[in-house]
Amino acid sequence: MYNACAGEGKGTMKKFAMLLVAIPTVFLATAARGDPGWSIQLLFSRCVPFCGALNGVNMLNGKIGIVVGGGYGALSQPYSVTLFSEDGGAHWIEGSVPLGSGSLSKVEFIDQTTAVSVGAWNRDGEGTILRTTDRGATWTSVVSGTRNRLTGVSFADAKIGTAVGDGGTILRTAEGGLTWIAQSSGTTNNLYDVSSIDGNAAVAVGDGGTVLRTIDGGNTWILQASGTKNQLRAVSFTDFNTGITVGSGGLILHTTDGGETWLPQVSGTSANLLSVAYTDDPNTAFVGSVGSILRTTDGGATWIQQELPTVAGVRSWSGISIKDGIGIAVSDRIVLRTLTGGDPVTCTAGIDAR
Questions:
Q1: How far, CA to CA in Å, does 271 sit from each of 205, 207, 247, 251?
Q2: Could you give the dihedral angle defined by the CA atoms of residues 21, 22, 23 and 24, in that order, rounded to the nearest 10 degrees?
Q3: Is 0.85 surpassed by the pTM of this model?
Q4: Residues 29 and 122 placed together within one structural domain of the fold
Q5: Are residues 249 and 107 in the same domain?
Q6: What is the tens place of the pLDDT at every residue in 306-347?
Q7: What is the total count of domains within the chain?
């Protein structure tokens, strides 16, 4: 049975199944008054199926999503891990990845079925790029052409995308991630993330407060004055002018003029901030940090720390994605989900074990 709650959509209380082990373990739960708005969907207490970390997530919509990560196995061999969901993150299934792929950092859908993920060195010593055309069920390797680790990827549309990585690495594709060409960034600082705004404009961030912007498809990357030397770990733009970048020491910078000026915002924390994602509302964004998740609903004028399950509070939330009101955050071997935009559950729901 199911009782509708304020702030919840139909089907909030579903059967939670850990589909990554040989014998699935099923969890049934009820949402009691005052429960956190984020609930644990997956929690690995042992090395099944992997001992690495989950690093990135991207939701295509409120139903379809992909989580990526990985680590090093026997004899220090690298490996990738991908999980995909088709029911809004209630269940996650492990995807099939090529042997010897490096640990994956970020992933992004580029159309309804295709996604691209980037990561660390594969067994051949190249930065890893993987591509799926079936929403994460199977993946194929793509030649990156770089010996550097890749840490960020973003697509403007189904064809044009940018990947960034160590040593100022910037790669561009105009073929939906099938082939990549190196671009000159003008820096040797490590770059950690990139946000593609349209086919010509993109912004990349990295070490030493580095902010780079292109408006000509990457033919030239211009260094912008960020006003900080802090490491910048993530960036997201909601339109050509408006964006957020976050980094070490609780730093949040906001721009409304395409990065000509970056103004600090009060995060309320000194913890390192690792990820940022806008929702469908351009005034609402989430930031993942070491130990917490922050939310703004007023364009960053105020940031409020989200209430999390106790076991999740000490984690480093390196990936976060919100689509159609469904939010997923990942850290280490934990997947969190919210169906309430991060708001605490406000009434009691019955069990729906369908």
A1: 18, 17, 9, 9
A2: 40
A3: yes
A4: no
A5: yes
A6: 999 887 767 899 999 999 999 999 998 899 999 998 888 655
A7: 2
